[in-house]
Amino acid sequence: MLFPKKTPLMIIALLTGFVVLMAIASNAFIAHSIAQLEQEHARQHMLSVQHLYDRELAGLAAQAADWANWDDTYTFLADHNEEYIESNYPLEMFQTLGLNLAVLTDLSGQVVFSKAYDAQAEREAPPPPSLQGDLLASLLEPPRPLAGLLDLPEGPLLVAAEPILTSTRTGSPRGVLTFGRWLDDDVLSFFEEATGGEIALVPWQADTVPADFAEARQQLSGAETVFARALNDHRIAAYGALYDISGNPTVILRTAIERDIYQHFLASHALYTTLLIMFTAVMGLVIILLVWQMKEQGQELSDILNGSADPIVVVTADGTILKANIAFETLCGPGQRSLLDVVCPEHPEHQEALQHKLREASTLQTTQTLAEVSFRRQSMARETVEFEVMLSPIRARLKRSPRLIATLHDLALQKQVEAHLRSALNREAEINRLKTQFLSIASHEFRTPLAVILSSTDTLEHYWDRQTEEERHKRFARIKNAVQTMRQLTDDLLVHVRTETGALEVRPEPTDINTLCERLVRELSLSQEKDVPITFQAAPSPLVIQADPNLITLVVRNLLSNAVKYSPAGKTVSLSVAQEAERTTLTIRDEGIGIPLEEQSHLFTPFFRASNVDTIAGSGLGLSIIKKAVELQGGTISFESVPGQGTTFRVTLPHHAPAVAPGNGNGHTQALPVAPQN
């Protein structure tokens, strides 16, 4: 087999296209995502600054409310005593509260007191003239709490106005107290230090503003509340508006931060490009090695086909031979042109069958097996050997006729294997028949001593007066136990025979698992002789399922009986029911002797009993019968056991059991004992 020459070129073209596509994706899609990510980061930074601004304004409003709702201030508006001013409005108060302005106005709009503070010079300054007159009077109509920004000619001023009331906030307002704080470099520096960005302000109504502020004003005039854009390769800015007391935009706020995300992207993109180039170089080298290896593998495959002992040829739909291995040429002779020519001429029907299968296989995509065909070896006169032809279609390429791989198998060895398997199956069937017969006979024979034991009871009654009361009770107990044991063993054997022969049938009907399990727990609790309490936990929301109540009774009763039998007195056995939409799980847990770990894999094997059961009676058939009864209903059974600590069995049943399990084909129902024990 030769590797196609165009294949390496196609692989290199695909690899190049992949590299170009990855480069385009990194520049187009990843860069776009990074831009969105850093813009969102800038917006969040602006929101942090606006949050600090809101906190600053809220703090100023809280200070104004604290001073306005004060009895001394309320009294001052009535008597204008100078002592209140001297003791409460020194320069130290302005420094402590960070205020630049304090104004007390009565209800007529008359300024009762005003004082301004220059923080830079640390001295008293005249109040801003622009705050007088109508602007100040607007804070009194009507007196109400106000907080916001005023764009004054002297600069942006944060103001908070509060009606002057008593400390209990009762009575009619006597005026308004107004606190002011310049939105100056000190406040902005505080914002910059808190958020880690560079902050700048531009009046909203300014006639001449930088280009980026003009673009931001246009964006913020619409639905945008925060606008972000890159300033250069190293910084990105976010813009937001600050509003005055009337709710009109007053100032454009800009915060600029480093483009860390973008710079990280540039570094990552450079690394990615370098790795992509390295990947391309490595892949190119790998392709060269793969091409070389594929050529070697093609030659190796050719050697394998020629080394095969089976004759193999590649043919067309009409049987024309295109290629043949050495085994075929050895069998049929070199130079054969058609597979039909190697068919023994004494069997034209084989040739017709082969021709039909060739046409049929050429239209399919699966392997076809032909009937036995006789071939005559060209190198040996008149000798015929039977061969089976296996036809495997080769997927047709563009404008190429269908081709088939024909493999010839010598049927002599296959017939020997079939004869051996047939003999083994016959022996297995005979062994199963003998085993079934033995179980049936053994079950029948066990009933004979049962009759003898029962007849002994009558004998005891005749010699009643020769025995003490204790002796009579003891003999009766032994006889009854023996009768029960023999009868139980008989039922176990009969049920085992029916499970092995497929005579058990599933007859599903609507079944309330909670009610059935509760009845069984009550019966076993009353009939058991050991002091082993049985607890029951029903499903909280019971569902009626389609199941065979007889088989479920068989399973639950066996598992509960085993749990009681292998549990010491005083221990507890529990049964719980859990239901989901499509299945029900029964969990039986005991605190008994447990099962040795090395023997747990054999637990469901018929007649198997664990090595730690000592003298506890049992047949070893119960669990194998239970497993079969569960599987007949489409369920599963599993267990967990720790020696000396107890065993937990879980039985999972579907809510729709099979209508009829695989049976014996005789069409009639067989009785099912429901109390076999392990």
Describe this structure in words.
The structure is a single chain. With 678 residues, this protein is an alpha+beta fold. It is built from 15 helices and 22 strands. The strands form five sheets. It has a six-stranded antiparallel sheet with strand order 3-2-1-6-5-4. A five-stranded antiparallel sheet has the order 12-11-15-14-13. A five-stranded mixed sheet has the order 17-19-20-22-21, with helices on one face. The C terminus is likely disordered.
What class do helices, strands and sheet pairing give? alpha+beta
> Proportion of β residues?
15-25%
Low-confidence spans: 378-382, 661-678
Our count of helices gives 15
Helix content: 40-55%
The overall strand count is 22
Biggest β-sheet, characterized? 6 strands, antiparallel
Based on CA inertia axes, which overall geometry fits? flat
Radius of gyration from the CA trace? 50 Å
- Please state the oligomeric state of the protein chains shown: single chain
What's the average pLDDT? 79
- How many angstroms separate the termini? 65 Å
